[in-house]
Design a protein that fits this description.
single chain; six-stranded mixed beta sheet; alpha+beta; 2 domains; Deoxyribonuclease I, Chain A; elongated; 9 helices
Length: 310
């Protein structure tokens, strides 16, 4: 029995230490990166293992579990901090990002979600024809809207209180299969370009080269546009992972941070993975991030408040 228990403890410990190593060295190899997204679950797991080991008088295991907890916490800490208070004189606006989920049986909840959040711009993902047919209520609340599924390979629906102009035709040619929508938004006399992306699943569920290629293609599209730019989407990649690091480095955009994970919604948010992101160019200030639980989807909605610098 002791041998089995020791084996179990050692296997769990190995996994708990692989996670921060994946987050730290993920850019070196997709296999290493595949461990990195689980920092938040690993913190909870390490705390549980430490408690169990101490109760079982396995003090060495308990100590190693505490070290693993601290290692995971150190890696994730910058990414779970709320945005610092910022002073800005430019117009403010709210953006709601929500992957509604292809098989959502509660699409009638999307309209109340948008109303209660008081979002100025709503970006919905996984909006395909059978989903779109059930979103009339939320569409009726917004005077400006662009449906992208029937014109480009994108499952985004953008709704806005401000005028929208479809700019997909001006994007550089795709270097890889992409799900990317773009539009300019006229906000109180100021204009920004809004990009809405939906990335493929990561390695090992898809080819290891798919997400890096999509990140490279996205960065080229963003840098080809001038002026204030806002990027939102379901990236199927953690905030601290290699994919998002590449997008930040090549596009010069900052990522909106905050506590909790947006996926999967059936887990407590402090055990989830933040894969639904909002990023902004330097002309914009990221003010706040809120996660909202919505029945019917495996994602939480992300409500972001943003402002022009001046």
């Amino acid at each position: 029995m002791n041998a089995v228990l020791n084996l179990a403890f050692n296997a769990v410990l190995a996994g708990l230490f692989l996670v921060p190593l994946g987050a730290l060295f993920g850019r070196a190899n997709p296999l290493i990166d595949s461990f990195g997204p689980f920092l938040l679950p690993a913190i909870v797991g390490a705390a549980a293992l430490a408690l169990l080991a101490l109760l079982a008088a396995r003090y060495a295991v308990g100590l190693l579990a505490i070290v693993a907890l601290l290692a995971n916490l150190a890696m994730v800490w910058p990414w779970i901090q709320d945005q610092p208070a910022a002073q800005t004189n430019g117009p403010r606006f709210k953006v709601l990002l929500f992957n509604v989920y292809y098989h959502n049986p509660r699409l009638e909840l999307v309209a109340p979600l948008a109303r209660n959040s008081d979002a100025d711009i709503v970006v919905l993902l996984e909006v395909v024809p059978h989903v779109l047919a059930k979103l009339d209520a939320v569409k009726a609340d917004y005077p400006y809207q662009i449906e992208f599924w029937d014109s480009v390979r994108s499952d985004a629906l953008i709704l806005s209180r401000f005028p929208l102009t479809d700019t997909v035709a001006s994007l550089p040619p795709a270097r890889t299969p992409r799900s990317l929508a773009s539009a300019t938004v006229d906000i109180k006399g100021r204009t920004l370009t809004l990009f809405a992306a939906h990335f493929t699943l990561p390695f090992p569920f898809r080819n290891y080269a798919d997400q890096p290629a999509q990140a490279e293609d996205l960065a080229a599209a963003i840098t080809a546009s001038a002026g204030p730019r806002l990027l939102v989407g379901d990236f199927n990649a953690a905030a601290w992972g290699a994919t998002m690091a590449h997008i930040r480095a090549t596009s010069g955009m900052r990522l909106l941070t905050g506590s909790g994970g947006s996926w999967p919604s059936f887990l407590p948010r402090q055990m989830g993975i933040p894969i639904d992101h909002v990023l902004a160019s330097p002309e914009l200030t990221l003010l706040s991030r809120e996660l909202i639980d919505v029945s019917g989807s495996d994602h939480r909605a992300v409500l972001a408040e943003i402002a022009f610098e001046k």
